Amino acid sequence: MAGDTCVPLLRRIVPRGSASHVKVKTMSEKPAYLTRDGRARLEAELEELVTSGRKQVAERIGAAKELGDISESGEYEDAKNSQAHLEGRIRDIKNILSRAQLINEENGQGNEVRVGSTVTVRVEGEDEEETWTIVGSAEAKPRQGKISNESPIGAALLGKRPKQKATVQTPSGVMKLTVVKIQ
User: Fold this and answer.
1) 3-state secondary structure of 148
2) Same topology for domains 32-102 and 105-182, yes or no?
3) In angstroms, what CA-CA distances link 36 with 139, 163, 174?
4) Counting CB atoms within 10 angstroms of each CB, which of 25, 29, 48, 171 has the fewest?
5) Phi first, then psi: what are they for 8, rounded to 5°?
6) Which residues make beta-bridge pairs with 175?
7) Which of 119, 116, 121, 87 is nearest to 104 (CA)?
8) What confidence tier does 70 reach under pLDDT thresholds 50, 70, 90?
């Protein structure tokens, strides 16, 4: 019965017809920010998977079937798992490309951090500066200096200007950053 008492309380907090009933965008509806290079890489990967990837998996499945009883064939099961993984990746790439919104890389240059900006920051308490490029989540590769606009650090830096500070909650504690320059 506890759930029954929550509904009236929620209705008082968020009445019907309020702005809070506006549909929230799901992951599959959110834009996928991509650079031209990132889009080209995804398109090339998709082409490779659809053409030769599917052909290779089909050949593996066919070869496993020729070995006999597929109900106990490890090779057949492995080939089918590879097929499922391949089809899942194809579906993911198609989804990303269908939501792709190209980053105008010249927009990154300016006086405010945006998706596409390369931003140099100084972490409070450290002498060295770090430089990151803010990209969409589909292109994020932190070890290569590309961080997602949806990551805690990327989100905290968006909209900041040189000399402004950003505070980020990380697993190891609070990190304070100062924007040094934006390219």
Assistant:
1) strand
2) no
3) 11, 30, 34
4) 171
5) -60, -40
6) 168
7) 116
8) confident
The ranges assigned to domains in the chain are: 32-102, 105-182
Burial 12-45 (b: 16+ CB within 10 A, else e): eeeeeeeeeeeeeeeeeeeebbbbeebbeebeee
SS3 50: helix
Q: Average of pLDDT values for 63-75?
A: 81
Domain range 32-102, its CATH number among 3.30.1360.70, 1.20.1250.20, 1.10.287.180, 1.20.140.10:
1.10.287.180
Residue 107, pLDDT score: 54
Q: Is the pLDDT of residue 155 over 60?
A: yes
Q: What is the CATH number of domain 105-182?
A: 3.10.50.30
Q: Six-digit token pair at 42?
A: 């995804």
Q: What is the mean pLDDT of residues 84-105?
A: 93
Residue percentage of the chain with pLDDT more than 70: 81
Q: Give residue-wise pLDDT tens across range 7-39.
A: 333 333 334 444 444 444 555 678 898 988 899
Please say whether the beta carbons of 135 and 115 come within 8 A.
yes
Return the residue matching tokens 């405010």. 112
Specify the pLDDT at position 4.
43
Supply the pTM of this predicted model: 0.69
DSSP secondary structure letters along 63-79: HHHHTS-GGG-HHHHHH
